[in-house]
Amino acid sequence: EIRERDWCNVVTCHMDTPYAYVWRLQNFVLGEHILSPCPGQPTPVK
Which of 3, 14, 20, 35 is the most buried (most CB within 10 A)? Predict the structure, then answer.
């Protein structure tokens, strides 16, 4: 869709880190935000 270019459209997570990264798939670039878990639940992906 046309509006799809207005925001990141892919989220990735990686082993041994609690963060998730957003990407703009059409440009293959990392987005401006990194998602993190709530402070009470900082469990990394297994």
Answer: 20
Write down the pTM of the prediction: 0.68
Asked if 29 contacts 21 with a C-beta cutoff of 8 angstroms, the reply is no
Structure tokens at 12: 């990735």
Q: Which domain holds residue 19?
A: 2-35
Tokens 């990194």 correspond to: 34
pLDDT of residue 46: 63
Query: DSSP letter at 43?
Result: P
Q: How many domains does the chain have?
A: 1
E-state strands within the chain: 10-13, 20-24, 29-35
